[in-house]
Specification:
18% strand, 3-stranded antiparallel beta sheet, 19 helices, 48% helix, 713 residues, alpha+beta, 6-stranded antiparallel beta sheet
């Protein structure tokens, strides 16, 4: 990677800024119109001026904020949550829970809900919003750093890489966050810079930075950009992967090597003519996360559509018909007077003010027409189309709901639906029509979770105690990168090393834990109405999930009234697994090994004795058979058969006695093995009882401490 000079960085920054500004010029123009329209600037300028000149009503009945709040408040009630899961054999579930709890701590510590809500509202109103990640020291007296999630107050201050392909902007190559600062404030903060010493900025046109610096303001930009560095990755014989520049001689010992393009994120603060600050960012992604609305490509041009983009015409029509209805009704009694020429002579003032003032009487001059007296002046009465105007206004209101994807049920108004299922179905239609906005926020938060997971082992890289927050919002402290004090199943002390293992993130959308508790309590109460006996066996659980003062105390009292069998079962299930101290555990393991060795020796002795007995029996039997054959060969006479049969009878009796002795000996050996096994189990139980008693005595308060400890059997 070639080292860039400050001037090279500035030249490339100016070029990229112009590219981003030109590519987003149309997007920013229409987004600014959306923001102005939401703020109430909803009449075309020429129409407004003409109506004000004619003194005609020009009403703005702005219904858009109510629709927007319906969507943004739905997002606040069902916030996306980041979840961490291990993805390889070196990651474990407990470390994943710690990292997930640490992310919740980061969110709480940095008021991340403000960043999420602001980005979502900016996206719903203008089509795009942003949130960012920064690092800072824990306090002024520490070198430990922490991660913070911050909002971007003005979405128009961010100029993002327009060539990104990913929906979450994870492949961005550069990003600008600009701030037009007054000259006096700039000189106060950056008085040592070269630009602060200039008296006039008129000569900056030669440098091409007129867009950055004026006589009133100076633009400060945070410029984040990606550089690539070529590194050689080596696979070692033991399966470990190492970079060649980190370990000398790794390439010669490697099984194979390959070159990789590693990203390096740089951050600098510039004013258009010089670099004020410069440093490297520890992560591998630009720490700015975009949140986009509907994204469409039309004729090669990218467009970001907000929620109110297509509702502006319906809102304008609603304003026009509301103004027309007001004007028509207000001017209805002001129909002009019709009279013969000369009848108003001498009384012009009264007749002119008759529409705005109440006179007790009106005088007119008598005139003759064809020798006959003319009738008195009369109003020319006509019926204005108020009903038609009102219907047009109602149609405009329906068009506004349709373009926003919301109906009366979603807005809390009573519609044509009568059953609960119909109302829920119509509400679901409104939720589905705008669910893509919440899903876009979830996509952005997933990338945010990857940024946090990448930063955590690099920022929290020292031995320290951190706070983590669980799913139930319960807080606790954990020691990381050092012995934690927790013991695993094998009796070894755990070390939560956040740099070991690979983890990935997912995002879940749903109500908060408090909302779930309320819903659970309501469901339990409805179930109790159908089955009242449930209160006797689960009343403590119902009260525990209710959010009002004293709920926990009442739950404990109801738990005391539970049936004995349920209390006994809960006590057994809720009995904490006591941890045996390491010294006692070592003693127990040593004795267990001795007993196991003794039991194995007894089994070996039993097998040896059985083999010896069987061998003696086989030898004796073979000898007897040989003698019998020899005797039979010698005798051969019929009178010797009786004697031979007698000998066989003696042999069978002797064989039976041997079988009985063998069975007795085997039974004796099995009894000895059983006693050895029972002795081992008794020793184990005694050791467990001794360890539990020692731990209980160590945890018990001094006034209630036992005077003697139970001895192991």
């Amino acid at each position: 990677m070639k080292q860039s000079t400050d001037q090279d960085i500035l030249d490339l920054a100016h070029k990229r800024f112009r590219i981003a500004a030109d590519a987003e010029s149309r997007i920013r123009e229409v987004a600014l119109e959306d923001w102005r329209f939401r703020a109430g600037d909803q009449w075309p300028e020429e129409v407004r001026k003409q109506r004000e000149l004619d003194r005609r009503p020009c009403l703005t009945i702005n219904r858009l904020p109510a629709f927007l709040r319906q969507i943004t408040n739905e997002q606040r009630q069902n916030r996306p949550a980041i979840q961490v899961d291990p993805v390889d054999d070196q990651g474990d579930v407990e470390t994943a829970e710690i990292e997930q709890g640490l992310i919740r701590h980061i969110e709480m510590n940095s008021n991340a809900d403000v960043a999420y809500d602001s980005a979502f509202e900016h996206m719903a109103t203008g089509g795009f919003g942003y949130l960012r990640v920064i690092t800072d020291y824990v306090d002024d007296q520490s070198f430990d750093q922490e991660i913070l999630i911050k909002r971007v107050k003005n979405p128009f201050s961010v100029y993002f890489d327009p060539h990104v392909q990913e929906a979450d902007g994870s492949d961005a190559r550069y990003c600008f966050i600009v701030d037009d600062m007054p000259v006096d404030e700039y000189k106060a903060q950056y008085g040592d810079s070269e630009l602060a010493g200039w008296e006039t900025y008129s000569a900056l046109g030669d440098r091409g930075v007129t867009d950055w610096i004026s006589e009133e303001t100076i633009r400060i930009a945070e410029y984040m950009y990606v550089e690539t560095k070529t590194r050689t990755l080596c696979l070692m014989p033991d399966g470990q992967t190492l970079f060649e520049d980190e370990y000398e001689g790794s390439k010669e010992q490697a099984v194979k090597c390959r070159e990789v393009q590693q990203k390096v994120i740089n951050w600098c603060k510039i004013n258009g003519t010089e670099i004020l600050e410069k440093k490297s960012w520890p992560g591998k992604w630009i720490p700015v996360v975009p949140v986009y609305g509907d994204e469409i490509i039309l004729d090669g041009e990218r467009q970001l559509i907000s929620m109110i983009r297509y509702a502006k015409d319906a809102q304008r029509a609603y304003n026009y018909w509301s103004s027309s209805e007001t004007e028509t009704i207000a001017l209805a009694p002001r129909a002009p007077f019709i009279g013969v020429e000369g009848q108003f002579e001498g009384h012009e003032t009264k007749w002119r003010d008759a529409n705005s003032r109440n006179f007790p009487y009106l005088e007119y001059k008598q005139k003759l027409i064809g020798g006959q007296p003319a009738p008195p002046p009369m109003r020319q009465v006509y019926e204005p189309p108020i009903q038609a105007i009102s219907m047009a206004r109602m149609q405009a209101a329906d068009d506004l709901k349709a373009t926003m994807g919301m109906f009366d049920a979603s807005l809390g108004a009573q519609g044509n639906e009568t059953s609960g299922k119909a109302i829920l179905a119509r509400q679901r239609e409104g939720d589905v029509a705008n669910f893509h906005l919440i899903d876009n926020l979830s996509r952005a938060m997933k990338h945010l979770g990857r940024i946090l997971l990448d930063l955590i082992p690099k920022i929290y890289d020292t031995a320290r105690v951190i706070r983590i927050i669980g799913l139930d919002e319960e807080q606790k402290t954990v020691r990381i990168n050092q012995p934690s004090g927790d013991v695993d199943d094998e009796g070894l002390e755990k070390i939560y090393d956040l740099s070991v293992g690979k983890y990935d993130v997912s995002v879940t959308v749903g109500p908060s834990f408090a909302s779930k508790r309320q819903e659970a309590a309501e469901s339990m109460m409805q179930l109790t109405q159908s089955y009242p006996a449930l209160m006797q066996v689960a009343g403590d659980l119902m009260v525990r999930n209710m959010d009002w003062p004293g709920a926990e105390e009442i739950s404990q009292r109801l738990k005391m009234l539970l049936p004995p069998e349920i209390k006994q079962q809960e006590d057994q299930q809720g009995q904490p697994q006591q941890q045996i101290p390491p010294a006692v555990l070592q003693q127990f393991m040593s004795q267990n090994e001795q007993l196991t060795a003794a039991l194995n020796e007894a089994h070996k002795l039993l097998e040896t004795k059985m083999m010896e007995l069987q061998s003696r029996e086989r030898i004796e039997s073979m000898r007897i058979q040989a003698d019998l054959l020899k005797t039979e060969a010698q005798l051969g006479a019929k009178d010797s058969i009786a004697q031979l049969q007698l000998e066989l009878q003696h042999i069978n009796q002797w064989q039976q006695r041997l079988d009985a002795q063998q069975a007795s000996y085997m039974q004796q050996m099995q009894s000895e093995a059983q006693r050895a096994h029972e002795s081992q189990m008794s020793a184990q139980q005694a050791q467990q009882q001794q360890a539990a008693a020692q731990q209980q005595a160590a945890l018990a308060p001094p006034p209630q401490q036992q005077s003697s400890m139970p001895e192991a059997a």
